[in-house]
Amino acid sequence: MNTQANPMLFDAIIVGAGPVGISAALLLSQQGVRCALLEKNTLREKPTKPTQQTNSFDGRTLALNLESSRLLNSINCLPSSDSTQAIKTIRVSQQGHFGSCLLESEREHLSHFGITVNSIDLGKKMQESLFAECAKGEGFSLFDGIDFEHIELSDDYSMVSMTLKKNEEAISLQGKILIAADGTQSQVRQYFDFPVTVKDYQQIATLTKITHQNHHQNIAHERFLNNGILAFLPTHLSNPKSSTKETNGYVSSAVWLQTQADTLKNEQLSEEQLTTTLEKLFGKQYGQFLHLSPRSTYAMKETIATKTQKHNVLLIGNAAHSLHPVAGQGLNLGLQDAQNIAQQIALSDCTVESLQRFAHTQQKSLENIRRFVNDLLDRFSSPSKLATLQRTLLMIGFEKATPLRRPFLHHLSGVQTIPPWFWKTLKSLNSLREKSAL
């Protein structure tokens, strides 16, 4: 094996060239931070097929909040508008019961709550910007198709040394800090033995794209069923041969969350049978369902690193937290991590202290969102009549109560941090619910 004589020196070494890792690397590079971005998959500068993208860009529809889309635009990573769909309205409802919640961006003084984009389109655009940054040759390097041979921290934690293997070549790197953005199964997290908690929701998400008769009007739907959740996101067909003016506005990405047993039953359904089932569950808002794309499934688990910083090693994105998608915050939280760590490093350089300050704020914010997500799931999963009434009153009240609704929606859109009183109010409501259940 060939080995280089001297290690290459960087300020920050980032592992994982998914959306979060690329964003962090480009943001830091904009600030003049010398970055090395590592990726185990081999990237192509001009991919000819979607399968040549990394696992992060696998064709799923992604929901980006308003701030995430602004962030990606600032680093030239946002696909063109003809590849995205704006979310201007959110409708929350429950099967078989009156009462729903209609949330409109215009009412909240926002242009839209966010956008949807196909992860393949996002991947192509982000990698295009990544290779453009590499071409500048100004302290930014990409190492793809690599394996880790060795990682070591200096005694004073001011330096991390890495040996990588690419084909038959050994590559030596040194950096002040190591940032892991390498996903839920993070190799870096495992290498440094970060503590992790895993919650299995015993649910499977079935994903498909539906072409329907009526225009989606840029509405995102979240419908709580008697035995699961059905979400519809306005989207487009990523295949340019299929996506036309006639289909634009008439395609939605469906996410159906069910128990494992129910998912197995529905996997046996033909496309026609599944189409009929989804029409009945969703209602007639979109008219007849005309076509379903091939289905894919994913197990629903919450994976949380209870500690995200050790010395000069930091976890961000799914390496630090992977939440249930019910509130649509997964990728948005990861991009927020990338933005916040870049801001922290701009203030106090690539130091252990910078990582400590970031991790403290990250953990505090994450705990509130995590509590909200799990409370939402608990609140809408109970079949009791009392719980149903509480849900109905909650949705109606939330839609009407502007002082409660607006800060929360602005937070989900990424444009404002939720004030402490909101979480205290939510905690009080949970206490009342628990008492009424006794």
Give structural notes.
The structure is a single chain. By secondary structure, the chain is an alpha/beta fold. The chain has two domains: 2-67 and 121-197 and 301-364, FAD/NAD(P)-binding domain (3-Layer(bba) Sandwich), CATH 3.50.50; 85-114 and 200-300, D-Amino Acid Oxidase, subunit A, domain 2 (D-Amino Acid Oxidase, Chain A, domain 2, 2-Layer Sandwich), CATH 3.30.9. It is 36% helix and 30% strand. It is built from eleven helices and 21 strands. The strands form three sheets. Strands 1, 2, 3, 9, 10, 11, 12, 19 and 20 form a nine-stranded mixed β-sheet that branches. Strand 2, helix 1 and strand 3 form a beta-alpha-beta unit. Helix 1 runs parallel beside helix 3 and helix 7 (330-348) runs antiparallel to helix 8. The radius of gyration is 23 Å and the shape is globular. It starts with a strand and ends with a helix. The relative contact order is 0.15. Residues 48-53 have low confidence and may be disordered.
